[in-house]
Amino acid sequence: MNEGMHSNHPIFRRDASRARRFGGCGFAIALAVMLALSACGESKNGDESTSVNGSIHVPAGRQPGAVATVNGSIHVDDNAAITSAMTVNGGVHLGAHAAATSLNSVNGSITLGSGAHVSGSATSVNGELTLGDGADISGSVSNVNGKITLNAAHVGGGIKTVSGSMNIAGASRVEGGIRVEKPASELIHLVRDVPRIVIGPGATVQGELHFERTVQLFVSDKATIGTVTGATPISFSGEHPPT
């Protein structure tokens, strides 16, 4: 292992500042990455568990552990397992039937392949979150900006966003409701479009659908939802709502 990196390193000062602009969630993720790298240093010995400038690849069969990078993506192969994945500038891809405890990114998308499982939560500040067929997140799914898509997937701890649109499709099931928060004053310049929330045929959202800002809420006549606060649902028939 190299000597531990610390928060005075220029790359950490730059990325912590960037994350701070997007609120406490992004800063917390960036700080967690910094602490992980501070403890271990940048890995260059082939296990690819940590990196400052570089992507990380986790093959199937490796002993589960935490992976973290500042500038790079994280790709977890099909049937592989990790504990946590954290990146500041880069996406996280969890392969089909892979497993993780938590997934976090500040500036990047998070994607779960078919049948992938996360026992905790998945959080991105600026990035899309996509759950494939049969994917399961026991905790929450949240972001500030970026579309959230579920394809016959399950979320156990609710979905939260500020300006992200949503498409809850197929036989998806969301427990814990949906919450779209009012943007903080420092984020107003990022919010240009009205979020479009679609609950498709066969989908179920248990719990309150709570909206603190204007949204377009389309609900299939074959979907099941809880109480709606702050928006008026627009019912539609067929596979897709009107454009």
Could you explain the architecture of this structure?
This protein is mainly beta and 243 residues long. Helices cover 12% and strands 37% of the residues. The chain is built from two helices and 27 strands. It is globular and about 50 Å long. The N and C termini lie far apart (54 Å). Residues 1-23 and 43-47 have low confidence and may be disordered.
Instruction: Give the class from helix and strand content and strand pairing.
Output: mainly beta
Q: From the alpha-carbon coordinates, what is the Rg to the nearest angstrom?
A: 18 Å
**What is the H-and-E element order?**
HHEEEEEEEEEEEEEEEEEEEEEEEEEEE
Q: Main sheet: which strands, in order across?
A: 1-3-5-8-11-14-17-20-23-26
Mean pLDDT: 85
What overall geometry do the principal axes of the alpha carbons give? globular
The fraction of residues assigned to DSSP E strands is 35-45%
The percentage helix is 10-25%
> How far is the first residue's CA from the last residue's CA?
54 Å
How many strands appear in the DSSP assignment? Answer: 27
Largest sheet: 10 strands, parallel
Which residues form runs of ≥5 with pLDDT under 50?
1-23, 43-47
Please report the number of helical segments: 2
